[in-house]
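Sorry to interrupt, but I need a hand with the structure work. I would like you to pick a protein and set down its sequence and fold. Please put the record directly below this note.
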Amino acid sequence: MRSLGIRALWMGTTLLAAAAAAEGCGGSGSSGAGGGSSSSTTSSGTGGAASSATTSSSTSSTSSTSSTTSSTTTGSGGADGGAPTACLTTSVNELRGSAIALTSDDKTLVAVNRDAGTVSVVSVAYTGSPLEPVLTLVSELSVGGEPWQVVIDGCNTTAYVVLRKDQKVVEITGIGTATPAVGKSVAVGSEPTSLALTPNQTALYVSNWVDGTLSVLDPATLTLTRTIDLNAVLAGTGLLGTVAARPALAHPRAIAITNNGDASDADETVYVTEWSAVRTGPEVPGTPLTSDTNWKGLLYQVPVATGTPNPTPISLPPVLNTGFNDAKGNVTGCFPNQVASVTIDNEGTAAAPQLFAYVTSTCASPAGPTGVFQLGQCQVTGNCAAFGATSTCDLARGVCTGSCTSDAQCGVGSAAGACTLATGECAPLAANAKTTTHPAVTIVNLATGVGTTTTLDTAFTTAALTATGTASTRMPLLPTDLDFKPGFAYVAAEGADALFRLKVAGGVISQVGSQTGDFIDLHTATNQGIRLPIGVVTSKDQAFAFVNNDGDRDVTAIDLGTQSIAASATATVTAPSLATLTAAQTSALNGKRFFNTGLGRWSLNGAAWGSCGACHIDGLTDNVTWYFARGPRQTTSLDGTFNKADPTDQRILNWSAINDEIADFEANVRGISGGVGAIVATANKACTVATQATDCPNSLTCNATTLLCNVSNLDRINTLSEVPAQQALDGSSTDAATPGGASAHAHSVIGNWGNLTAWIQTVRSPRAPTNLVTADVTAGQALFAGQGNCTGCHSGGKWTISSAKFYAPGDVSNDAFGALGVSSLSLETWSAAVKTAAFPAALFPTSTAAKQTYRSGAPQTFEQIQCALRPVGTIVAPAVAGGVPTGVSPAAVNVWEVRQDMATGAQGAGNANAAGNDFTAGYNVPSLLGMQVGAPYFHAGNARTLEEALSSTFAGHYQSPVAQVFSPTPAQVRELVAYLLSIDGSTTPVVIPALGASGGDYCASYVP
């Protein structure tokens, strides 16, 4: 919603009748009042200084590009409010950066093409009756590495683009003309992700995601005027323990600035999101809900007049009840994380403003159980002992016979017939697939500093059920951006290929969806490809919105009157760079699409309940500790998966070294996200509704929009029933996922996992902070290789000794226990090699000589690549087999070492399983790439900061047997932290030392 001036203009246009007929751009909504806030909770914010900085505003704005008045200004007062700029026009809208921006006359769009390094300038003409937008590509300008956001000034003449990889801001002149051009540029901090202009354009703010700072630029000269440090604010909250301010402690992501409509910028406030949630309380054994709710998001406040951040950020509170219970019937909560955008709206009047910040996030719910639940899941008959001596493992279904006698035993919410009485087998229950990640909006009253978080999947599900009795077929997965029309917010959901409408007033979501549907589908009849919308902007005087699609590098026009893609044949425009891609680049782009989408085969019912990108945004980490089948596991950043200089050199995967190929994560798609998966015997065949009975296999129906057969779990290849199984450490998932693969096993008819692997190989590590002290980095490097002797584990091209390169996954070299050949990793011992080399025995994952093999553990339940494991003092074995280990961590963290049932002891301590199969200790060595944005650290998020990881609590880690006497002083901790933060993709890797007393890689001693 805009200021009164623009709102009056909107209401006075010729579109009034159409908009009114559509009842606020698309109808009255599909739910009654309150449908969008049933899952929200409220937490007190800061008030005080935050309030005084915002309540003076008489108006604010919502559109992410500028709208203007005829007044002029030379700037006024304050640290960032006094310098005149090239544009002397006061904007009446919020000049907030987005992946797409629109001039205030609605005639020119500027959209970033992140992978291509270009910016598309698009002209917009409105013709016909009713009006339709005609989009024409004016120019595609090369600007540099990873253009992330763009903002247009109040004069509609200049755009500013932030380049994430190149760490710059570049201007584009001549916006609205036939000859836009790249102008000046200026260096900013590391990994800049967002930018925003003050209303009078006296300052341009840029968030430096890795540095933890804001760069303030003079837009006229494009020069740096000051740097604002947010690291001190986060350190001062005490939420990270006792830690001094330093680079890469805070991670500012999105920016919005208030606008009261006057000629001074000194009375405005800058709001900046902290990317990751912060812990507010320890884990509480026996109380799983606390793992979902002892966290919150943060919103920083910086008054323009002083440039000094408010010391107390606004809280983005958790949700105490998402509305989705798990398969055990437990209430689940979530906390705002990966906080992607902030947009300010004035829902009052000029005389009595009511300012609200709308903050989008992915709300994390890590407590178990996670993923599809099935009572009696098994891999071998030995897993079925609990169900009696006659129970066996049905390998075709992966479930124990005789494990149920009634439907109720199969989980809360199981349908009638869930227990097949003839065999006593439970059907899978998908309830948990709805309880992991949630798209969310936190609405903050800027006058009081109080925020309320609403989970949007709850809102849309509830709304649809209220109106139609059926759940929405799409959730707003990965809400990347939000913009307003009067009374309505529109959310772009990257993982759902859709735009979602929220009816808002007074900081409350009263309805979601519209009379025409629960969402606006960005697919057309001719383009059913994965679109990945990353930005949305609404027009000022027309009833349209425009969406930037990262997957197709195109811009789509949305008719807000019909709540659909505009009817114009030129409503979508594509940047020509897409047509120039090589086969390898096309494969990687397809992999990026599959990685982020939750549609089709990638999540439960293809309804965007989850995706790989929901936990690994940009291929990195969400910094969340999830309770999985092996125990609490911090999400691993994927940038260290492959050696940047050798893409064939891949690490062993997961903290427990249980996967050796990217395609092994088919199990995550099927199990955690509840999707069909991409190792399938049947593809999405073309069909017609009239002939679907013959067109579609497995009695599936034909999708009337896509004219493709809908996907089904019946399409899957049962990789578990192959001999050996083609999943995890058995067989080769890559071979199974490759059409026409080399083995005699069943092969997928689609090659999506090959594309996903190609994209993961391109994932870039975050760049080092620009504000490190060089002397500290140098000293820390010497400590790392010297007294600390960290190179024994953290070295090589991936900055980890973990490598799958020492064997080729297949049916012989890594089979379960040599059933198909004598060269089994499970039969080959590393003991003699490491003892001869004097490798420290205290770092052995097991002290039992007969069990010291390269691969170990019962097949698929406890198996691991054992030689990749290192016990590093982060877990203590239980007193008795089958007990719960103790997690090593500060009291404020209190790591809870249990598996996804939130009761059984976790793997990693050695001999922690009552069956005696889980006998290894330690974890797969992580890469040091991505340390800048990887907090908290260790397998269970044990340490909140690098400083805490080097504290006496974790002496068992840094005083390992290869550095027994190392006890870093505070100065040495500072220096080591600086060096760790300096490691990025451009850092020359440390050579892995020879196997011996200093450590090294004894997986490499394997001889096939």
